[in-house]
Each structure stands twice: as structure tokens, then as C-alpha cells.
Description:
The complex is a heterodimer.
Chain A: H1 19-30, H2 35-61, H3 70-78, H4 80-83, H5 86-108, E1 115-117, E2 124-128, H6 129-144, E3 151-155, E4 159-167, H7 174-188, E5 195-205
Parallel strand pairs in A: 4-5
Antiparallel strand pairs in A: 1-2, 3-4
Chain B: H1 6-32, H2 34-56, H3 67-88, E1 97-103, E2 106-111, H4 112-115, H5 117-123, E3 128-138, E4 141-150, H6 156-174, E5 180-185, H7 188-192
Parallel strand pairs in B: 4-5
Antiparallel strand pairs in B: 1-2, 3-4
Amino acid sequence: MSIETGTGTAVAVAERDNTAAYRRIVRRETHSPRSGFAISLAVLLLLVAAWLVTETVLVLVGAPPLLSTPGALVDSALALPTAVLPAALVTAGAVVAVLGLVCVLVAVLPGRRPRHHGETNRTALVVDDRAIASALARRAARAAGIDPDNVIVSVGHRTAEVRLSRSSGWTIDTEAVEAAVANELKRLNLSPALRATVTVDTRGVVGA
Amino acid sequence: MNATNRGLNRVFVLVVGILLIGIGALVAAAAAIPEWLAAWSEGSDRVSESLGRAIASAPLGFSAHSWILAAGAGIAVLVAVVLVIFVLRQGRGHTRTVLRRDGDGGEIAVDADVVHSIERALRDHPGVASVSVSSYRVRSDGAVKIDIGVRRGVSPADIREAADAVVADWDALLGESLPVLITINAGLATRLAKPTSLQTTAVK
């Protein structure tokens, strides 16, 4: 089947309240699920567990170990304080603790993705920051009368930085660029709202 | 929009992190403080002794080895199984049926393929480089996600207007307004696609 755009048939659409669903969906789309990190961690632990099981089975059937028997592992772990230099132990402990700190930070920080969400009406909208930057660059370039390749836009969580490089001998109407960028941002109506700063590279590039 | 248990992911990473911090800090502190180091090596000797005795007194029927060894392996198997389940449970929640309603004398089920017609309707838009539509279960009902890759410089506002128009038509067809998420990206397809030559953005 196909849907023709612009042929809105007059059928009563059941009213439903999607507010709660949208809040959940938008929150999940703008924040990382940490799946990649959690899966990597789980796979690492899984490999260690599988290796320990393998070594144990090898001992039980009397086959030579892959790397070390469980007994030898326990022995060397117990011998750590005497067998290894204290300085090496301190370093190793510190490295392990730092890795742990990284894990804790990944778990606790909000894990924001570089995305913004638009106004929710019938549909919810989530826009990638690169798409925002690309659209702003196009508008800024048109307002300035320069090539889009000479506009660099970086979009952060709350700010959009528009930098234009100017060819020698040409002037750029900064106010027009600011107005165009502000207009585009107003149309997008993003949250968190972006505040734009427009700067013109005054050095001027010959032939650009 | 998938059904990944994000809370569980966080808790898992947090617990592993706390364990690593605890072990690392303890090892570093014990090695750095001479009295602790002495106590540690003394404790190790005692553990080694008692462990040796425990293993000797717990023989496994059919072999010369201790069942403590087998129990250790059993715990490792259990941990491995739990981890496999944890990994496999990530990212599910796709659904084949976006809507299910009881009608007079039967049930109406709307297949996800029906939703995919949105894809065809949007593909011809000049600003669109790629479209993919997927359907998920959010709470008990279906929800639709429209992923749109835009061409360079195209305003997401224009794309949203076009997508909203398609969704409105679709609503009229279905008689129900399912939650629809539109995501607008400038991904690989965007970089490979040419910028639109005929871009008639009406400045409002």
C-alpha cells in the first residue's frame, strides 16, 4: 500500500495522550544506554569466567593447562605480597582503581548524546547536532553570500558557534548572518535552546 | 527506543567499578604501608595453609582432586551464564504488530509492514538522503521511529514538516495516533549525498 501526501482523508482520529510515552522516548533518544560499555565489560568478565572453567576441566581430566592451573593461580595470588615489589603492587592497584573510577563515572554521569530535541506535538523530534550545524552553516553562508565550505559551525549543548572566513576585499554583513542563524534556530525550536555566536575571521583568505 | 534495561546497565557498570576501586585501592594501600604489607603476607600464609587442608579433606569421589575445585568451576559457569543472559537481553523491543484492537467479532492487528509505507512516502523528498522506519513496543503499545538522514544544509524544520504531513495522512488511515519519533541525522548518507541543488526553503 502507499500513502499519498497531502490527501488527508476526513476520518476521525482517536485522541490519545502520548505525553508519557514521548517523554520516555525523547529521554532515551538523547541519552546513552551505555549498552556498548556494559556489553564490553560483560564480555571481558565472560572470557575470564570461561577461561577459569576451561582450566578447571583440564585439571580434572588431567590435561596440561592452557596458561596456568587454578591451584597455581591461587598460590601466586597468595604469594603476591612477597613475590612482587611493593612499588609494582601500588602501581597495579592504582591502575585498577582508576579503571574502576572510569566505570563509576560512566554509570553515574548522565551520558548525554550530541542531540537536541524539538517541540513535541503530534510527533516527537530528535535532531543530531551535526544536522543542526549543517543547516545553520547553509543559512549563515547564504546570508553572508559565501560558500558553505567557508563556514564552520560547532554545536554544543547550549551554544552554537558560527565562524565565517572572509575573502580579502569582501565584507560580511554580520548582522544579517546573526539574524539568519537566529531565525533558523527559532524555526527549529530546540531544547535545550541554543544560543548562537557569530564570528567573522578577519584575516581574510585569498581566493576563498 | 528499544527495551534495553538501562538501569540494569548502570547498576552493572557501577558495581564492577566499585569492586575495581575497592580492590585496587586496597592492594595499593596494603603495599604502600609496611605494617599492612607484613600483615598481608602473614595472612596469605595462613590462608594458604588452611586452604591446603580444606582441599585435602574434601576429595572428589572419582578423582584425586578436591570438590572445592569443581565448586569453583560451577560458580564460574553460573557467572558466565548470567553474563550471557545480560548481553543477550540488550536492545530488544522491536515489534511486528504496531496496533492491536478488539473490533466487533474479531481483533484488528496492524502489521509493522504497513508502517513502512511512510518510508516510501518520504524517500522522494529532495532533502532526504535516507529513511528507515522501525517499530517498537513502548509500554504496551506500538510506537514508530522514523530515522531520516538529511542532505547537507537541509533544515531539519523542513524535513519535520514533510514527515509530519505523512504522519497526519497515516493517522487518518489508521484512525489512531500512535507515538511517532522522528530522528534527523547527518550521517554517512549525508556526506555521500550531493547537496540539494534545488533548495527552495521558504523563510518564514
